[in-house]
TrEMBL record:
Region feature (Disordered): 334-371, 472-498, 619-653
Species this protein is from: Astrephomene gubernaculifera
Signal peptide: 1-23
SUPFAM superfamilies, sorted: P-loop containing nucleoside triphosphate hydrolases (SSF52540)
Gene Ontology annotations for the cellular component aspect, listed alphabetically: membrane
Keyword terms, alphabetized: Coiled coil, Glycoprotein, Membrane, Signal, Transferase, Transmembrane, Transmembrane helix
Name this protein carries in UniProt: Sulfotransferase
InterPro entries found in the cross-reference section: Heparan_SO4-6-sulfoTrfase (IPR010635), P-loop_NTPase (IPR027417)
Compositionally biased intervals (Gly residues): 353-370
Amino acid sequence: MTGPCALALVGLALLGLAQPSLSQTAHECQALTDHYLEKHHKEAVPYTGSNMVYFLHVPRTAGRTFHSCLLKTVTHPARRCPKAYDHLRLSNMSMPNCYLLSSHDDFSVVSMLPPDVAVISQLRDPLDRFISAYEFAIEVAARSLRRPKNYRKKVGRIATEDVWPWSYLIPFFQEDMQPKVAAAQAIAQPEEGRWIEVEQDGERWYFNKALNVSRWNLTEEEAAAGGGVLPLLDPYDNQLVMSLKDFAQHPIAAELLHNGATFQVLGITNYSHWGDAGAFRSCLKSYDSLRDQMLRVAQERVRRFSHVGTTDRLFESAASALVSLGYSTSSPAYSGGDDDVAGSGGVRRRAGEGGGGGQGGRGGAGGRAGSGLAAQMQLQAKLVREARQRLQNAQRELADGIKGSLTAEQVDVLRGRVEALRKSLIQAQDKLASLRDQLPQELGGRGQAADKGSEAVDNVFAAQGARRRLMGAEQEVEQQVEQQPLSGGQEEELEAGGQQRRLLATNKISVATSDAFGNPLDLDFKRIPNSNVGNEFMRCASRAQQRAATRREQSLAALCTADGRQVSFSKAARKRIPADVLDLIRSYNTLDTALHRVGLGLLDARLVEQKEQGLYADMPKLPADDAQDSGLGARRANRVVKPRDERVGDELR
Ligand SMILES: *[C@@H]1O[C@H](CO)[C@@H](O)[C@H](O)[C@H]1NC(C)=O
Ligand SMILES: *[C@@H]1O[C@H](CO)[C@@H](O)[C@H](O)[C@H]1NC(C)=O
Ligand SMILES: *[C@@H]1O[C@H](CO)[C@@H](O)[C@H](O)[C@H]1NC(C)=O
Ligand SMILES: *[C@@H]1O[C@H](CO)[C@@H](O)[C@H](O)[C@H]1NC(C)=O
């Protein structure tokens, strides 16, 4: 491992740089840099098939789809980490007894994971990521507009509002939009209403809310009525919510989004476990040489990741990730669910317990017991959030203390406090996880699009009588692999169960056949019959996308003016964002732009290798009727009705 040493040798040349009005002095920044290079050098190791995979989830990179639809689906349930760990701030996880973990934490969490952890990630063009984050935060914030005053959060799940960085961005937009929307909706409308322009699915027409009439064309008289036609609302710049441009320039965007992927890879986000992360980010803003240096650190770091993909090539990235993890698109697929966690099922030891063994009344009616539990969970989730906040505060205090004039003893006291708070956070998280394990399925893990998908699959499977023994032959192949690990350099293909299966000898990854306690896996447990991870991923991703679109439409319907114009994000509207706004966002994201470029290069290089070795296969194409999730169209209740008559005359403008 040459990384840390090489990094430490990079010259800093900070001292003596005369830059005006700095919040951090050169001296402080030098000290922070030294500290960073000294302490933050644990790097990812390659994936071998037997070490933990940590998915560094950069917000708005389709990470949820990537995790739920791909990684979880291909990972045997007994090897996945408990779901609670995916959402909550991670603490000391050096012995987690599980192998697949995902969180919005930044790289600073890696120091708390096992020594040989492999890391994978998805990057995205920072311009797209930023716009997507803006849209998503507004969408979720808009849901609060229609909530009754005594609204209580749905229990039994981690809400988006609880997850960094949304925990800051959603309240931010709620506060911004509430008075603006109230003012816009208070504007009195003429009795005959006003004609507005509407754009949906790429089509435009006119609509009058008071009359509830849609028209392709207006007469001159209509067009002049009530003060004239109101033009289309620009979703990125309107009176209802802070504009994209203003948001891009707001300090909160700099704190939470700009260059966020790079900061996450460096482990110095606003959510870092390192108390000095904020000060260090300020240093990066002040010193170009330090920025360059840290960009190189980040680029070096992602080169060690076992997979780096990109959101705008999601399917290719997903197919490549499978190969990098020792699978292929035709590997077995497993259904999801909250209780599919290490130690709670799916190992042979427990095979005799039958399908429901040890699964806390899953699938039973369970309503009343569930709601008591749900209340407990709501309380526990709050305790976890509070414990997390206390830990973050203490971490910051400790960092300040070390910098300040505290004695070694006083620092020790603070350090002891951080440790104690870390322990209470772990306890609180464990308690929450065990409560969630007891929760009946109808109450648990609902709400987030991609997860719903795998649960649906789960139900189908359960209904079919669960745990059917399938493809026994393939299982034998799996066992063979365990008994005689293939030596490197050769590649074998075996026919099993009519399905071709490749054993990835070339990159020395063999798919695991035991859980963290050494128990052999029951390879049929929760296995989705007659399918594979390629098909399941495509279905799950398609469902997730459709659900997200429907949900967005429903949420944004409340973000409207008195005359009926809505904030409606669309590809067409994105194309109309002025170039100066796009340039502005780019200018704030130079680190992420450079990092993304490296990510693209890594993906391309891996694809070439994987194809040369004959290991890569594209994701399957979904049959047309599979891609349509019935019932979703019907729920599009908040749409403006299209004019009933045929369009006359002109083409789409
Ligand atoms: C994490 O936990 C392990 C075992 O529980 C312990 O040995 C180790 O010191 C802990 N590390 C940290 C950073 O707390
Ligand atoms: C407006 O008209 C459509 C049919 O064109 C109808 O489905 C809808 O319920 C009407 N809305 C109101 C508020 O009357
Ligand atoms: C993270 O950002 C939010 C929003 O700007 C801020 O309120 C919070 O104090 C920051 N937390 C840390 C640890 O810097
Ligand atoms: C509708 O308006 C377009 C111009 O926007 C015009 O070319 C077309 O003839 C009009 N159609 C009708 C039926 O008025």
